[in-house]
Amino acid sequence: MESYRIALAGNPNTGKSTLFNLLTGLRQHTGNWPGKTVIHAEGEFNHKDTDFTIVDLPGTYSLYSNSADEEVARDYIIFDKPDVTLVVLDATSLERNMNLALQVMEMTDRVIVALNLMDEAKKKGIEVNSEALSKKLGVPVVKISARNKTGIKELLDTVHEMAQGNVPTTPYRMTYSEDIEAKIEELSPKVRQMIGDEFPIRWISLRLLDGDESILNSLNDYFRRERKRGGISNVSVNATT
Q: Where is the FeoB-type G domain (predicted)?
């Protein structure tokens, strides 16, 4: 039987954990992420005779490594490479929530946006054109209410299709000032030469330009683990790369 891994990302208070509990029921367990005091929640569910493992990432407002929660969420998406990253947004507060979705889309192409709390949005007279939003973002957008269990089948069908590679995406990518774009273009080949093509080179280059030392630490930790497994030769990354 086929099996896939799903990352569940979102801001705090978007109903992300409600969706996680709905999908996994009693088939879940919690602990701490290795070397962290951050809670790790993981569960399983089956859809269309396919097994899924879903990891409930810490609720964060960004992935800029300003906290242990953000580092954990960022590193899981980059290094564990889930088959699908499901970003849960609060439909009543899209502008505030969109920042995280845009960051995730810079890190991976395999993204689905779940517009949760659609029942609350309706009460407030908020209408969301999910088709137009999907076209703008370049990834599937599905309206749901985890609390009321609406839209869940469509969401799971979309997850299933993307996991199997049947949903092409063209995620929206931020364009920065000419100066920053020139620096990204200059740095990216050096980063690619050092770490290869399996990681989001543009995003990592941007974080390095921003002086994010934690991404260097995470990269070196990853390569150290891979060396112990015998998966790669001696590789290390430093700020002078």
A: 3-165
CB 73 within 8 A of CB 103: no
Q: How far apart are CA 97 and CA 91, in angstroms?
A: 9
CB neighbour class for 121 (10 Å; exposed up to 12, middle 13-18, buried from 19): buried
Look at strands 3-10 and 84-90 and give their pairing.
Answer: parallel
Reduced to 3 states, what is the DSSP secondary structure of residue 84?
Answer: strand
Residue with token string 């931020």:
174
pTM value is 0.91
- Pair 143, 223 in one domain: no
Summarised one tens digit per residue, pLDDT across range 121-131 is 999 999 999 99
| Number of domains, the chain | 2
> Is 8 inside any structural domain?
yes
Residue 234 within any structural domain of the chain: no
d(CA 159, CA 37): 30
Enter the tokens of residue 148.
């009321």
